[in-house]
Amino acid sequence: MTKEPNDRTLQLPESLSGIQLPLLAGGGIAVLVGVIAGLMSPNGVSHSLHAYLTAFTFCLTISLGAMFFVIIQHLSRAGWSASVRRVAEIIMAVIPLMAILFLPIVVYVLFFDHGALYPWNAEGWGELTPANHEKAKILNPVAYLITSVVVLAVWTVIVRYFWTNSCKQDETGDIALTAKMQRWSGPATFGFALSVSAAAFVWIMSLDPLWFSTMFGVYLFAGSMVSFFALMCSSIYFLQQRGVLVDEINEEHFHDLGKYTFGFIVFWAYIAFSQYMLIWYANIPEETIWFLHRQGDGLEGWSLVSLSLVLMHWLIPFFAVMSRHMRRWPKWMACWGVYILAMHYVDMYWVIMPEAGHENHLVFGGAMGLISSLLCVAGMFALFIGVMLRIGSGIPLVAAKDPRLPQALQFENI
Q: Hey, is 300 helix, strand or coil?
């Protein structure tokens, strides 16, 4: 590679650097107004809390997908991804922001929640049945706090380790840093798998405390990967339209990103179907109730949302990115990336929001509920992008001194 790290075609354009503050300020205001609007919905504080958690989970899962991608590239010694890995590292580096955005939820659970968000936090819940009593041993504010601190600490350590060493290599060109990151990618994979499962079980699955699925952590992981690759394709195309990364990322890289997108769309559908099929076949009331809340007798309310996921989260994008020729068309992949991100939000909405109200007429929580959900996710995503731009300012958008970069620049699909 002949370009220096400070080459303008490797740097974030000034036009994007200048919108950081508007995005951060606007995002913060939108989230605040969204939370307030939720209080005026039929479900009141419950809708507000669930809408915030849905928006938070939507953004968090994108970063988690990026974290896994970065770890796996080091673990597998991948050469093709050296030119796209920095964008993934930037998306991954938003995790500390997500830790800050999770603080209101932790504080609410510890001091104010009386079952509006987590039913297990209601007074006397643990005494209702023997099952409740057993569950209360692991579902309580103290256990929630400990789990949250450990999970966020693991993620922050992983992010800081890979981010710091990758940026340090830009300055020193030290090849040993690549071996160092590769050496710790194995333990990081275990830490990632355990922490994501713990977060999925405690933060999301416990919204319905008596329901359980051993596949739920994998389901959340699958959605994370789909949403991450969707944002990668859209972000890189957006940057290239502004003259950045034009020589470093070409249709061969989009082809591989498209293959990953296609593969994880299939994987998400496989996990979703397997989870549903196994619970349906076993027909255990404690398990089936979760799906019963998401399907009614007719085509209305939550049933429509469930069917829309089958059609629009799996079937349509499945065919859209199946073709090799389509995957090598950056504009096509970028457009479908935006679409897939929207469907990922619908997926998170389907997972979380029924716990705020199972009734079909409360799918959106009325007009104020709908406004609340839209403002929360728009604001949270604006904060997410704003922090991404802030992290990406002043550094090369390619790991310029990575020893595998020449291999990435010459990469061709066979």
A: coil
